[in-house]
């Protein structure tokens, strides 16, 4: 499920001004690789439903313009970063947040479908097979605690974000074995989850039996992050946006440095960036990046009950309702996941989502929004929340959100706040990023073989033979001598070229014509149409080239 997107920035304690703006898709960015274009620095060009009405107004801050210091510096201003800033500030820590977006929540969090649930994305019976019954019970408790934490924050800070508690229902996917429900029901009950089998899910009688998960939740993600940011500011958290981090150093002289050369010195560093940007190898052997798709369509007000729905397909489909206006609600449906950079049939995926939705919600109107987002699937189904392996002990990561970014990111903030404050956290060991994933060896081998296979693009021909064959407003990889070049042709017919080689570990990027991005199929780094980085692990841009 579309999940996590982690970004942030800092301000002067007590003296910062907050500006709200309507969402803009362009900003001037000066990058260390000498890229200097007016360009989109959000996660993609498609527009999620959250950016309508109140959701289009998000806090905006100035870039980092001088050296500074704080107890903790957080990179990323999505749900992981802002929640961590909030909890740390509540505990008495001074916090600086950095993000390269133009406004808070410009990354993957803003592309979520915002299900808040403890019905494990990778299913209880699968997690039991990897971790055993006791640790699976602990996993269930952790997500339940994360839901309660969000609920308490909304109440304490009086955040107007359409937060509501509701029931979730797991149904059998098309052409799936109905016995999957029985296995999941037993495993969920053994994990202490209050579930029951019902004859059918509300509104989905034709899909047969369903497992009911009480006590789930949902909210409007942009309004939640905006409200949480305001709460952070009241406690002195400093935010700096349009600030791209190029250097992270842990240890006694811990600091992060921006491409403009300004430094934040801190005792602790948190990478809340969807995936770590200071690690080249370790974590990427344990998880795989995926794109997931979503659509939204109007339904008559009150015609569809407020519930969460998921099915057992692989990849699975999911749905929910959110408020729209006085006459309509908005039905949000997601699914159709695939590894990043390894598919181009975007229209088909949106079409399949629409067909799945129409079959179950015939009252839906024409699709109003279509978008995609990025999730990272840990091979063993458990997120990585805590100290970064191989680092110097005071660098922390929140990654591997799977389809549960709302709870995993909140949980990561809870765990890291306790670790920084040297408090015991009963979930820390379970989510320790240093753990081995040998218990999920089949998944680990399969995913890593897929990753290595993507290097075949080095010996494949380009997408087109020359630049003249690239349509305006589109991009393609062309062969130039012994290497590959990524070329974007703007609406005026002017080509912009950069190396097609991802600076992370040398994968060849592919053009994503829906989001207008260059996506690396190896480890999921993504770059905008001009080559600027918008998603890790790579924090450097594609090298500009002359044609």
Question: What would your notes on this structure say?
Answer:
The protein is of the alpha+beta class and 547 residues long. It has helices at 79-90, 124-157, 179-190, 221-234, 346-360, 405-420, 441-453; strands at 19-22, 27-30, 36-39, 57-60, 68-75, 95-98, 115-116, 164-171, 196-198, 210-218, 238-240, 245-249, 255-258, 263-271, 287-300, 308-311, 318-323, 328-339, 369-378, 384-387, 395-399, 474-480, 483-489, 495-499, 510-512, 517-519, 526-528, 533-535. The longest helix is centred in the first third of the chain and has 34 residues, at 124-157. Strands 7, 8, 9, 10, 15, 16, 17, 18 and 19 form a nine-stranded mixed β-sheet that branches. Helix 2 packs across helix 3 and helix 2 packs across helix 6. Strand 27 (526-528) and strand 28 (533-535) form a beta hairpin.
Global geometry: globular
Number of discrete helical segments: 7
Helicity level: 10-25%
User: Major β-sheet, in short?
Assistant: 9 strands, mixed
Mean residue pLDDT: 89
| Protein structure class | alpha+beta
What's the β-strand tally?
Answer: 28
Strand percentage, roughly? 25-35%
Q: Between the first and last Cα atoms, what is the distance in angstroms?
A: 40 Å
The unreliable regions are 3-40
Radius of gyration: 22 Å
